[in-house]
Amino acid sequence: MVDFSLTETDKKLIDLVREENEIGRAFARELDRTMEIEPSRLRGVHPAVADREDPFELLEGVHEETSGLVIAEALMFMASAQDVELRDVGGHEAFGSMVLRNFGTDVQKEKYGHLNLAIGITEPDAGSDPGAMRSYARYDQETDEYVLNGEKIFISFFNKFDGAVALVKVAGKDGSRPEFGTFVLVKGAPGLIESPQMRKLGVRKHELSGFVMQDLRVPAVARLDADFGKTLSNFNHNRPIVSAVALASCRSLLDFTRDKLKAAGVELDYTQGTSGRSALVDRFIRLESLWEASWGTVMRAKWLEHKQGMYSNGYRTEASIAKAMGAKAARDITQGCLEILGPESLSEEYLAEKWFRDVRIADIYEGAGEIQRVLIARDIFGYKKELS
Amino acid sequence: MIDFELTEDQKAVCEMVRDFTANEVAPLARSQDTAGELDSALMDAIWQLEIVQSQCEPDGRSAFLAGLVLEELAAGDASVATAVASTMAYCLAITDHGTSDQRQALQESLKAPGFQALSLAVMEPSFGFSIGGLKTEAVASGAGFRLQGAKSMVPLASRCRSFLVVARYQEGEAAFIVPADAAGVLVREPCQTVGLRPLELSEVVFDNVGIPQGAMLGGSNGSNIQSIIDASRTAQACIMTGLSAAVLNHVVPYVKERIVHGTPLAQKQSVAFRVADIRIDTEAMRWMNWRSAWEIETGQNPTRLSALSYSFAGEKTMKIADEGLQMFGGHGFVQEHPLEMWYRNARAISVLEGVAGI
């Protein structure tokens, strides 16, 4: 039966992440100004939350009392703008480790399972088009090693993690066409050269770097049996989360805007029709409607995932819809709120301008909005390569 | 607990209405539009599905199911869906808010074998009309009231035996059950509208109409007028979603077949992306409507979400009908295809307020 109520545990988890974000906001501006220059990312747990339960750890233990593990997780992401990290990253942000857990053999898990691994896919000349990748692996029969060359960029937390799972092309045997291969790369290996952190428009707390592979030798056991399609099946889980994270910042900005409008004497009246409200109020209501519309698409995708399992492909179009909808809404909502708020919103005294910058990445990473639309349209038309 | 699963009963009703819509409703949409009136045999057949009647029974009342049904009907014809929703709005306002006498009187008209046209009368004939600025007014007079004002865009007004008129009363608003044949009620000729033409939208003038005391909805305590408006907004958003879904279903085969400069339209990103956006927006609308309808059904305050659903659906449905027409090029502009009709209907349904209910 269709139901949009939250369980008591859903609500408790949402409150916990909200409260934690309130605590973190005090540090948000400072982090925004400095984070990406120095590898200053928090190690361990910030004293401000040392005596508080970790909401995401708690979720693992109580998910049976929630609307569902992945549903509650998305609700939590949508409830907190995560302006700062008060807790060390690891686990759920180590995307490469997730690939290892899902596709690695027992031997591989034994060898690499203790590591936090990032994921390296994007290259300077190849983002959403893996066919354009130039990173290359060649098998050396004499040493039973692969030799890798190439460059990977835009890798979350590579500076902090122990290594990465990288997607590269592998030379085919006897001159056959190259195929995609997935390799575990561990820092410290000669030929694996870390690039400096990237300075960027927003989400500056989120460290982004890359690496160069220069005759990097890895043992044959480092090659995972995770082909490109399998590797990307994780995207179905992550795409609505990208939306959720952006929607959280939007929620913060909508709340901020509502409060400031109220203080300026502008009341939001939902009983009025379009012609009975000011252009300002109408604009705000339309932005709010985008938020609620996006919420529905995220919940729908997560509910399907909850029913079908994370690695099902049965909800991939809905995952793309949630991503495309929420990410575009985030652009519109944040741009619109700053316009409504006017010149005062530009000041770094408030976080409004930060939220405006932070969410812009949502329509780019984990498949740009255009890629989501290609995927959605292919599903509608029953196309594969006919549309690219 | 978040759940998007329809019950087996809801699925069965949707399937039944979907089949009925495809076989009976959609084929008549064009001829009804041209004639500017509904096909009475079709409306009687819909009446016999007991969609409205079942909602008026205590164990059949479900705003959520009503919303599902309206979306299905609107995929065939938004005019038919709105006609049903109009009668439903009237009946459900009385079922939910009426006194026992009012409900009993309603039950009598529900026993009729053929479609009963009954309407809310909310909008008023002025440019820039806002639902918050009603001019029609009721004043206490003797043992009853006197009603003065004019209502516009009343669906099937000339066929209605009775109207539920929303008017200013004392400090707020109230609704009054006014028989069409009461002295002082003048139903004007249908004004021939750009869209939803079969609804025969007309102006109804109330010139010092005397109303007995028992005709105020809910009796002397009045009723929650806002909840009637909320239900209307959500119902109209459901109708708009059905219309949007119809556009999507219609453009997909066409853009795949139509070859332009050597490749199908569907293989061009500028077209494919817009079709993807139609799908995105239609689904986003649907889940938001479900949530609004769920709020209504579970007795929460649905005012905010209903307003947001209505606003979102209105903006997107107009855009979707517009894009659908554009994809058909010249074929979208001529009457051999339904796009031009849907384009007109989209504008109409998204600016009306208070013509539907769930």
UniProtKB/TrEMBL annotation, chain A:
Q: Which cofactor does it need?
A: FAD
GO MF, one term, reads: acyl-CoA dehydrogenase activity
Pfam (any one): Acyl-CoA_dh_M
Task: Decide whether keyword Transcription regulation is in the record.
Answer: no
Q: What is this protein called?
A: Medium-chain specific acyl-CoA dehydrogenase, mitochondrial
Print the keywords alphabetically: FAD, Flavoprotein, Oxidoreductase
Q: Which organism is it from?
A: Hyphomonas beringensis
Q: In its UniProt record, which GO terms are filed under biological process? A: fatty acid beta-oxidation using acyl-CoA dehydrogenase
Superkingdom of origin: Bacteria
From TrEMBL, chain B:
Keywords for the protein's UniProt record, in alphabetical order = FAD, Flavoprotein, Oxidoreductase
Q: Which domain of life is it from?
A: Bacteria
Q: Which InterPro entries match?
A: Acyl-CoA_Oxase/DH_mid-dom (IPR006091), Acyl-CoA_Oxase/DH_mid-dom_sf (IPR046373), AcylCo_DH-like_C (IPR036250), AcylCo_DH/oxidase_C (IPR009075), AcylCoA_DH/ox_N (IPR013786), AcylCoA_DH/ox_N_sf (IPR037069), AcylCoA_DH/oxidase_NM_dom_sf (IPR009100)
User: Where is each Acyl-CoA dehydrogenase/oxidase C-terminal domain found?
Assistant: 225-355
Q: Which Pfam families match?
A: Acyl-CoA_dh_1, Acyl-CoA_dh_M, Acyl-CoA_dh_N
Residues of the Acyl-CoA oxidase/dehydrogenase middle domain: 120-209
Among the GO molecular function terms of this UniProt record, one is: acyl-CoA dehydrogenase activity
Q: Which residues form the Acyl-CoA dehydrogenase/oxidase N-terminal domain?
A: 7-105
Cofactor(s) in the UniProt record: FAD
Record keywords: Oxidoreductase included? yes
Q: Which Gene3D superfamilies match?
A: Acyl-CoA dehydrogenase/oxidase, N-terminal domain, Butyryl-CoA Dehydrogenase, subunit A, domain 2, Butyryl-CoA Dehydrogenase, subunit A, domain 3
Family assignment from sequence similarity = Belongs to the acyl-CoA dehydrogenase family.
The protein here is known as: Acyl-CoA dehydrogenase/oxidase C-terminal domain-containing protein
